[in-house]
Amino acid sequence: MSGAEFAVPLLVAHKASLWEKRVAIGTGLVGVLVVGGAVTWGRPGPANAKDHDPFQGTLLPFVHVDARFGLDSDACGAERSPCQSLGWATTRGVAVSVACGRYELGDPLRLRSGQRLVGDASCETCISGGIEVSGAWSDGAWTGTLPDGSRTPLMVTADEAPTRRARTPVRLFADYDTEEGSWVEWDEIDDAVFSPLRVRPGMMLCVFDEWTAPRLGVTKIERDERKIYVEPRIRGVPRGRFFVDGVDATSPSTTEVETPTWSVDGSSLAIVSSEPIGGPVIAHQLVELVVLEDVADVAIENVVFEHADVDVSCLDVAPTYCDFQAASFLETAAFRIENATRVSLTDVTIRHVGGYALWVGKNASDVEISRLRATDLGAGAVRVGAPNHGMVNHWQAARDVAVLSSDLTDGGTWWMEGVGVLVQQASRVAVLDNRVERFRYTGISVGWTWDWSETPPAYHLIANNYVSDISMKTLSDLGGIYALGNLRGTVVSNNTIKNVDSYDYSANHGIYLDQATSHARFEYNLVHHIQCDGIFVHWGVNNTLDNNVLADLNPQNQSDCVQYGAVRTSLVSGGCDTSNGDTLSCVDFRFTRNIVYVDFVNDHQPTIYGLTPYVNSTFDHNVYFNRANLSLHFPPNNEPFAAWQTTYSHDLHSLVADPRFVDPATCDYRLSSDSPARDLGIASLEVPGRC
């Protein structure tokens, strides 16, 4: 594959004006021009499915809004006579300047084409989808009454910090057995935990499959049978973990010390906490805070969006209900963009929300998200593209989207399968220079087809991201960066991936090339301190793995991971004729100029794992080293390195040698000046040490 087919970054020129930023890509055949806070690739694309004409009403050029001192009227909007509400101000002005303070929304905010919403950069301009609840603190609990007309929340924020709806067990998960799928059965040892429970409105059961944790409504509790009955039916494994959510927070069996927990009984809200609650208590109300639909040329800067509630409408949607990979069953987000073009979000914060923070959905194009701060998220941070499997009409796919220099943290608080950045059916998505930390499933996921189905042209660029603390022993079958389907022209480059640690089995990986991942490059990535393997190639064709560092894998020498190596495939490598549906034999990649640096203390643990000697793949110019001074083992039968070379003609120019990192003890995996890796053409990854 030629360099022109890949979105390889050559130059990023940040100019004073956002509208003039340019990103040159590849050999010049593919270019990116960021115009008006939007990304437009140099190759011309088809016209949008809809015309987006700017609003032609009598809007004022500039309108001020201030919740503290403003007054809504036909004359408001001047700096000295501001409007009071956002809804009123956005009907009067093209550019809306929002003063510091908190603004409650009664309905999702919708902007017109050409509008700009700007908050005060010196303080917080907070736009809330919640409602403040009055109450008081006494004897270890805060109690208050929900306002008349408000809905029963599924999320509550107290003292500007997250709380958790009361559940049991409080910290650990109970095991369940089920065969019929309509109930879970607890063990006798858990009688004290579950026997006191009574069915409450909104009570849910959360069950854990490998990569999902669906919620189901509790319909009945039979104490004598030790069974909790649910709707809809449970899919997945017949035995696993679960907890019950929506129990009484004031019950001694559910009171928790570390995190404030809460429950609602009728209109009464109770929060139990080890520390007094003195600040505002917000009951989340709206599921969506902002919807940009059928618009063009919209910009938002320096605004905080918060307090979106959880959307559980999936409980009524067959056949997946609330159970599918990456929480893709969700049809809403706190901030949703759909059928819109030329949209810019700069220095925006989205926090305390019940689903994905931001969704750039179908037929959204030319969108730039820069310096987004997203935290305390019910699912993931950023979602891009249509959720359809396989090929979608061109106008349905999102395209030309950039997620830049953003802080994306603490996801999966409700839907644990949420992803830090999820790229589904989309073309030309750039995910650059972001921090992605503390998500319970996967850090960054790109691609959305599990077979050879045709998809929209990809050409994604996933580069310079810091991905850390993924799963945290919550879910399994996941990756720091996860790829799927036909990703022609996609480059995953210069990312740091560390601390990926799944719950209970070996399917966790630094970089995960899952089913049918094809035609992509993975290069210059630093992958270290992963519970199991650094790179897993499930199956796929024409992938390049070049100049990556895979270091300190399986650091705890866990038994589930000992059978696998630093690089792993699960299926047979052989002929790859896909015309007859042959997929199991399709493993075809190039593994060159990589460093594999491990401390495997088990003499039988392979360095490279596979069932056959990778007859379709190429291994060469790599450096392998086990600092435990044990032998290295290679496919197909834990062969010594010499047999791997002479019998199968792999790694003929590779070395078994210490790569001489600057200071691996502090996770500084840069190459020293005398590293033998340099002689093989391996470039040093200039990433500072960060354990």
UniProtKB/TrEMBL annotation:
Q: What is this protein called?
A: Right handed beta helix domain-containing protein
Looking at the record, the residues that make up the Right handed beta helix domain are: 415-550
The record's InterPro entries line, in alphabetical order, gives: Beta_helix, PbH1, Pectin_lyas_fold, Pectin_lyase_fold/virulence
Origin superkingdom: Eukaryota
Identify the Pfam families for this entry: Beta_helix (PF13229)
List the lineage, top down: Eukaryota, Sar, Stramenopiles, Ochrophyta, Pelagophyceae
